[in-house]
Amino acid sequence: MKIIPIALFFISISFGGYLEACYRIYIIFVPVAESCVKFKNKKNELTISSWVKTIVLGKLFRNVHNWGTAELIDLKPVYFELFQREGGFERDHHYHFRKNGVEYSIIKFKGDEEREEITQGFFKSSVFLYDPFSASLIVYLSTPTINEEYIQIFYDEKLQNIRYRTLRDESIEIEGVRYSTWKVVLIPEIDTKGTLKPIGNWYIWVDKLTLIPVKLEVKFNIGSAKAYISSLRGDPKVLRRLKKRYMKLKGL
User: Fold this and answer.
1) Nearest CA-CA partner of 83 in 72, 70, 73, 96
2) Disulfide check for 95: which of 14, 59, 80, 211 has CB 3.0–4.6 Å away?
């Protein structure tokens, strides 16, 4: 019996600082897309990368392939990039986070990838802002919450907000695996120029063991979808260690 914890120890060492969670996304009971998010942590540096793309049946409705990366130091973003390919809507985002605001560049493309328009600017802010990826991480790390919390993010040339709070403990089963979770309601007050516009209340089930969401119910202007975790590889304690750092940085 001692072999199991020893094996887990060496697995943790080999994957130290790396965790990848992948999801299958459904509309009703039909799988329409896949997505993965990766966390790579080394000392006070963290990289979050994510992608989502429609699969066979989803492509019949809308061909989507979005991917991006956020780079953080001490759990605050320093750089964010997002590449949107949503049917005929194609746009690249590049944000550099400074102490007094965000320097941004947004590139719009025609369908043939020919550069069409570049929007550049500096958004001043007296408070530190987050990008969508790092804001999602903060939601996971700060769960469970007692009161409603909010995070200010910069996206699509403007200040945006997400509000969230923990509703309750909930045990759920996904593909024969039982998870003890916190159910979180998230309200994305996001105005985006993309074809996928978040609306309404989103629900996230955060696994108590790994702090990774294992189930999501989301709404967009084109419809609702559910996402379920399909695989988890790497060091399952990555977000737990990040939570300790987050609490320390917050002085909690």
Assistant:
1) 70
2) 80
Return d(Cα 49, Cα 187) in angstroms, integer. 23
Distance CA 27, CA 33 (A): 9
- The pLDDT confidence band at residue 220, using thresholds 50, 70 and 90, is confident
pTM: 0.89
pLDDT score for 73: 97
What is d(CA 33, CA 18) in angstroms, rounded to the nearest whole number? Answer: 24
Tokens describing residue 150: 């909010």
Q: What is the pLDDT of residues 47-82, one digit of tens each?
A: 999 999 998 754 555 688 999 999 999 999 999 999
* CA distances (Å), origin 79, targets 68, 106, 144: 11, 14, 27
